[in-house]
Write a structure and sequence with these properties.
Rossmann fold; 7 strands
């Protein structure tokens, strides 16, 4: 429903392209102003938000850095005065066999994929609590079910997101804040298409109950529901959006 987020401000990480960009566009179409946090240039996302008639703040931010996240929160406060919606979407997904992995590689994935959610939620949840309304959506992954070989650091981080989401939902529910997770299947974003994971796409297409390629737009409806008032009594949940691959 256009305009149902009128007056709301959404902060979304990793929105320079791909799934995050699709989320930012839909949030703007639904009436929210959008703050984009990314280490990559996000001028394309900024243009899409502005085309929808909403204001867009683009902030260079390494979400694994507490200092960068604090600077982001200050910029959002100065520009918009509040943040009502937080989408923790940023993440990386390198592949490497566990016995060939060193601890610095493990920590880098956990830091960006999971520690970042600690920093972002600590920065923005207090304001939501003060206003008595908030929506937090954490992006996990369907790999927590499939557990593909060579991605132990990634799968551990994304399974951690689910546990973190459930606990945070219990702690923040009394303040009118819902916390949920979305677990996408392997999605044909530009980043995936240019990565080794691109070789897996054809197999995933055949395995799904809906036998076609998953694209970023397939994830938008779940996000739009979770940040809306329709989801006011829906919290601590993980929505697996993978075209039915997860139960086959």
């Amino acid at each position: 429903m256009p305009g149902r987020l009128q007056g709301k401000v959404a902060v979304i990480s990793g929105a320079a392209s791909g799934i995050g960009q699709a989320y930012a566009r839909r949030l703007a179409e639904d009436g929210a102003d959008v703050a984009v946090a990314d280490v990559l240039p996000a001028s394309e996302t900024e243009a899409l938000v502005e085309e929808a008639g909403r204001d867009c703040l683009v902030q260079h931010c390494d979400v694994s850095s507490a200092d960068d996240v604090r600077a982001l929160a200050e910029a959002v406060q100065q520009r918009f005065g509040q943040a009502d919606i937080l989408i923790n979407n940023a993440g990386i997904y390198p592949a490497k066999p566990f016995l060939e992995m060193d601890f610095s590689e493990w920590r880098r994935v956990l830091s960006i994929n999971l520690d970042s959610m600690f920093h972002m939620c600590q920065a923005f949840a207090p304001g939501m609590r003060q206003r008595g309304w908030g929506r937090i959506v954490n992006v996990s992954s369907g790999t927590f079910l499939r557990a593909p070989a060579g991605m132990s650091h990634y799968v551990a981080s994304k399974a951690g997101v689910i546990g973190f989401t459930r606990v945070l939902a219990r702690e923040l529910g009394q303040y009118g804040i819902t916390v949920n997770a979305i677990a996408p299947g392997l999605t044909a974003t530009e980043t995936v298409l240019n990565s080794p994971q691109a070789d897996w796409l054809a197999d995933r297409d055949r395995e799904r109950a809906i036998p076609r390629r998953e694209v970023a737009q397939d994830l938008v409806g779940a996000m739009a529901f979770l940040v809306s008032d329709d989801a006011a009594f829906y919290t601590g949940q993980t929505m697996l959006v993978d075209g039915g691959a997860g139960f086959l």
